[in-house]
Specification:
Blueprint (H helix, E strand, L loop, with lengths): L8 E4 H22 L16 H16 L8 E5 L1 H12 L5 H13 L9 H12 E6 L4 E5 L6 H20 L9 H6 L1 H26 L2 H13 L3 H5 L2 H25 L1 H9 L5 H5 L18 H4 L4 E6 L2 H10 L10 H8 L2 E10 L5 E9 L2 H19 L4 E2 L3 E4 L3 E6 L2 E7 L2 H9 L6
Parallel strand pairs: 2-4
Antiparallel strand pairs: 1-3, 3-4, 5-6, 6-7, 7-11, 8-9, 9-10, 10-11
Helix pairs in contact: 1-8, 2-6, 2-8, 3-5, 6-8, 6-9, 8-11, 11-12, 15-16, 16-17
């Protein structure tokens, strides 16, 4: 599942701080080893090259690392943090209305990831304003690096990351070839989450190679000093699931691309653009790429059983990644499973679908049907679902081998290799929804 917004490809500061740490350690090791018995020659101090000249050089270095060529002119510029905030408010989220944000918050609240009154739109604006270090707009073909202090090591590293996106777009066509566009991502958020992880993971790996091979000593000093002093109060205050999901394309995407690179270096990464991953399951388990595809789950039309006054608000796929977040990263720490247990329970995911309906009042119902790789995997997920439910809603009213219910409005049921969750706040809506799934009654 994902937000109903389409953002440019961005590099975020927290991801850089987390991921470059490993690069700094490895880079320091190689630098120390290579310079162990080396005395550098004396050189005369010279004027540093202009920002444009530095950008040109980084472009060539990144192109050499990545093995991809720039084929069209690039519009590039620096942007202040004040200008960025205006872009975030008036461009990134221009089509994401408060009503859409509230609908998303309602769905996430039903899944236990947000408080129902959470101001999602304003938080997104604040979060992206704080976190974006640079971005590439694949629609306008414009690239920006955010910098109030000039073109220091952090901005140079960001430039390497964002220029990788330029190369990806010019060689693979992100919007049309890879279908990273608003319409397709609204239809298949799992696919877009997976492809975004490929694209960002590639950019992170390229950025780290650039940092290790081409950054200057001053770059390393700048980045190290920034890491030592950087604070991110908005990110730190984000709901638990959001902090993890925000980093997913960079961290899990990086691990996925590393696994590709380990096979045949950049040839394997390039090949993934011709046969992209299609699910977060494949990102989390590279061994399942490219052959293990999600199973399509078709849900019944609940309007027929819910009656007049009900509206379908949202439908889509939760996916393995969000399944683990639901179990392990709820808004209330008291009903979170251990993160390892949550990931293990989600690991046998085979496919799913969810739908969320609401009426004219505050009544809602969410149905989520998942299919698992085996009956054993379904049993494991059902057992973890039950544990989660008891932490969240207390002692169940019904507790059998394959069914558990709470308050006559919530149930989790296993049928063979499938599991059904129904979460509502209205007993009649719950009963009518359950009737639409006869195998689970």
């Amino acid at each position: 599942m994902g937000k109903k917004i389409s953002l440019s490809l961005v590099v975020i500061i927290v991801s850089g701080c987390v991921l470059i740490s490993a690069g700094l350690i490895v880079g320091s090791f190689f630098l120390l080893q290579s310079q162990k018995n080396y005395t550098p020659p004396l050189v005369e101090a010279t004027e540093p090259p202009s920002v444009d000249a530095q950008m040109d050089l980084i472009q060539q270095e990144v192109s050499d690392i990545r093995g991809l060529e720039l084929s069209a002119e690039l519009n590039r510029a620096m942007m202040s943090s004040t200008e960025l905030q205006d872009v975030v408010m008036n461009e990134f989220f221009i089509d994401y209305t408060p009503e859409m944000a509230q609908e998303d918050a309602d769905v996430l609240s039903a899944l236990g990831l947000l408080e129902p009154d959470f101001e999602l739109l304003q938080f997104y604006i604040d979060l992206y304003s704080e976190q974006i270090a640079g971005y590439y707009d694949s629609t306008t073909k414009e690239m920006y690096v955010i910098g109030d202090a000039g073109f220091t090591g952090l901005e140079r590293m960001t430039y390497a990351h964002e220029f990788t996106h330029v190369l990806q777009d010019q060689n693979y066509d992100l919007e049309n070839g890879l279908k990273l566009n608003e319409d397709y991502c609204e239809m298949d958020s799992e696919y877009c989450a997976a492809v975004t992880a490929l694209v960002e993971g590639d950019a992170v790996l390229t950025e780290q190679y650039w940092f290790l091979m081409n950054s200057t000593n001053q770059d390393k000093t700048d980045v190290s000093e920034f890491q030592a002093t950087y604070q991110s109060p908005i990110f730190d205050s984000a709901p638990a699931y959001m902090r993890q999901d925000f980093l997913f394309p960079y961290q899990q995407g990086f691990s996925f691309v590393q696994s590709l690179y380990g096979k045949d270096k950049w040839k394997s990464v390039d090949a993934a653009y011709a046969n992209p991953p299609v699910s977060t399951e494949q990102i989390l388990h590279p061994e399942k790429y490219p052959n293990e595809k999600p199973v399509k789950v078709d849900l019944p039309d609940l309007i027929a059983v819910l009656g007049d006054g009900w509206t379908e608000i949202d439908r889509g796929v939760i996916g393995e990644w969000y399944t683990s977040l639901v179990l392990g990263s709820g808004i209330d720490s008291r009903f979170r499973l251990d993160s390892f247990a949550a990931a293990e329970a989600a690991a046998g995911w085979g496919g799913d679908a969810y739908v969320y309906y609401a009426d004219n009042s505050d009544t809602y119902v969410l149905a989520w049907q998942s299919i698992w790789d085996s009956i054993d995997d379904a049993e494991e997920f059902f057992a973890s679902s039950k544990e989660y439910g008891m932490l969240r809603w207390g002692t169940p009213a019904v507790d059998t081998e394959n069914e558990v219910t709470w308050q006559d409005v919530i149930s989790m049921t296993q049928y063979g290799d499938q599991v059904l969750w129904i979460i509502s706040n209205d007993s009649m809506a719950y009963v009518n929804t359950l009737a639409a799934f006869p195998n689970f009654e």
